[in-house]
Amino acid sequence: MKLVLATRNAHKLREFEGLLPGHEIVPLPEHVELPPENGDTFEANAETKARTAANATGLPAIADDSGISAAALGGAPGVRSARFAGENATDEDNLAKLLREVPADADTRVEYVCALAYAEPGDPHTHMFVGRCAGRLTHEPRGEGGFGYDPAVIPSDLDDGRTMAELTPREKDAISHRGRAARKFLDWLERERAAA
């Protein structure tokens, strides 16, 4: 199946190519303008992007909105994860701000959340799949893999001291919020095809 991925993030494009084997993941065409991510939830942002991409391209589309929630910050940065340190913040800026605001002696529990939306052209209904990955912050970022907050998050599923950025792509996909949402989506697609 050919799926447009409603993002300009090259990291996400690569991840989804690996997470959705057997499907052709098409980058969002340059002329398609995505709406601003001003929803109050990951689901709202993902839904708007998926529907925009599907209607603009005439192809089925997927979009994810994801981020990290820190227990010590009452769930922040949440939907503002990509802009936590400002509108044009880099991954490094955002991570540095999170580590400043959550001291090492505070509650370091965090949770990654991914809302993955699937939309078809002209169909107002969107299918939603949510994945989560719990962990804790380390104030000694490590690892070259992953992106975003990955160098400072030790996942609870493994908890062998390695950060998300130190895992192999296969290890990360098995436990990540995005991997879990993608598998829910694939399971749903399989059921839909079987029922057709």
Task: Considering the chains and any ligands shown, give keywords for the structure.
196 residues; alpha/beta; 6-stranded mixed sheet; 5 helices; 32% helix; 22% strand
Commentary on this structure:
The protein has 196 residues and is an alpha/beta fold. It is built from five helices and six strands. The chain has helices at 10-19, 42-57, 91-101, 169-175, 177-195, and strands at residues 2-5, 24-27, 61-70, 109-119, 127-137, 153-155. The chain has a six-stranded mixed β-sheet. β4 (109-119) and β5 form a beta hairpin. α4 crosses α5. The longest helix has 19 residues, at 177-195. It is globular. The mean pLDDT is 95.
Which helices and strands occur, and which strands form pairs?
Layout: E1 2-5, H1 10-19, E2 24-27, H2 42-57, E3 61-70, H3 91-101, E4 109-119, E5 127-137, E6 153-155, H4 169-175, H5 177-195
Parallel strand pairs: 1-2, 1-3
Antiparallel strand pairs: 3-4, 4-5, 5-6
Helix pairs in contact: 4-5
